[in-house]
Amino acid sequence: MKERDFIQNKKLTMQKLEKAKKEGKVDKDIIPILDIMNSYDEFYTSSSCYGRIVLLELPELGDKKNAKWLGKWHRTIKSKELLDAFDKANKGMLWLLSQSPIIHVFAKDLSAADKLVKIAVSCGFKHSGFKTVDKNIIVELSSTERLDSPIGSDKTLFYNKENIDFLVDVANDVFEKSNKKLMKLKDRL
Amino acid sequence: MKERDFIQNKKLTMQKLEKAKKEGKVDKDIIPILDIMNSYDEFYTSSSCYGRIVLLELPELGDKKNAKWLGKWHRTIKSKELLDAFDKANKGMLWLLSQSPIIHVFAKDLSAADKLVKIAVSCGFKHSGFKTVDKNIIVELSSTERLDSPIGSDKTLFYNKENIDFLVDVANDVFEKSNKKLMKLKDRL
């Protein structure tokens, strides 16, 4: 891709990002990191997620289209919050997910992109790599921690109260561990 | 990397692979796919996993070094097999994992690598991408299905018999879905 196109695309993407920020559509806590990345001429960020804990209801495995989001939090949670969200369950598999941050970055050239991947990996984002190097060079920064747990079905939880506390602790732990890595990355950029 | 080096490295890696095959150290069912990939001059495969269901005991979250493998299967399982493996539990968190296949491929050049990633993504390996494009070009083919579920602690399971059946069904379903993608990829190569 020509440098002129990269600069032009960055400009357009940054305008969209500023608009999304104003509309509260960007995870608040990830904004400082996006701002640092976007301050470099070599990069601009695309879709990103700060990490999240999610309670999903799925009609069947992998049927994300018809998934119902019963709860979504970009922070650690309390058992009561999970149980309140569970009250909205109706029919289908219940999954608790704790997902670590994902940041997509467009890079001007391969060497800048490779450097970014190496820094991210050294901060613990071990799943980082290039999504494509064809027309655009897109890097995905992501970590390995996650929880993908079927915790109930058709309005019934598999866990008793005590085990729910344990499960929520694990979900929070996953969230916190990966967010520590994000802070480390922020310092290294 | 120079073409001569690529050819030389491929030769060495293929010798190691043949040795590992003879020693039964390569997941049997993934061999036909590796063989097809390695038949192309542009590629050679590195570490790969056919996908697996695993019962792990972890002293604490993320402490993989001290993880105890209570059970590991490169196939679907029955509840009884999981419970038999669970009998070996002692102390720590119990996790049931169902992991989809991962194949690492060295590519001769970027355009061949990009083509491979695009084919893999079109077969459902949506997490595929480049690990590095520096000295070597390494592609990782991987899918999104997975189960990472804390199912017990200190010799106690959170699930009753019926729920264990449900959980094992989900683990098997994850395994089968991602392996169907692998067959699709095999046909497309």
How is the secondary structure organized here?
Two copies of one chain form a homodimer.
Chain A: H1 3-22, H2 31-38, E1 43-49, E2 52-58, E3 68-73, H3 79-86, E4 93-99, E5 102-107, H4 110-122, E6 129-132, E7 137-142, E8 146-153, E9 156-157, H5 161-188
Antiparallel strand pairs in A: 1-5, 2-3, 2-4, 4-8, 5-7, 6-7, 8-9
> What oligomeric state do these chains adopt?
homodimer
Strand content bin of chain A: 25-35%
- What would you call the shape of chain A? elongated
**Estimated radius of gyration of chain A:** 19 Å
Low-confidence stretches of chain A: none
Question: Which chains make the largest contact?
Answer: A-B, 32 and 32 residues
| Helix proportion of chain A | 40-55%
Overview of the structural elements:
The structure is a homodimer of 189-residue chains. Chain A is of the alpha+beta class and 189 residues long. Helix content of chain A is 41%, strand content 28%. Chain A has helices spanning 3-22, 31-38, 79-86, 110-122, 161-188; strands at 43-49, 52-58, 68-73, 93-99, 102-107, 129-132, 137-142, 146-153, 156-157. In chain A, strands 3-2-4-8-9 form a 5-stranded antiparallel beta sheet. A 4-stranded antiparallel beta sheet of chain A has the order 1-5-7-6. In chain A, a hairpin with a 2-residue loop joins strand 8 (146-153) and strand 9 (156-157). The mean pLDDT of chain A is 91. Chain A binds chain B through residues 61-62, 93, 110, 113-114, 117, 127, 129-134, 140, 145-150, 153, 158-160, 163, 166-167, 170, 173-174, 177, and chain B through 61-62, 93, 110, 113-114, 117, 127, 129-134, 140, 145-150, 153, 158-160, 163, 166-167, 170, 173-174, 177.
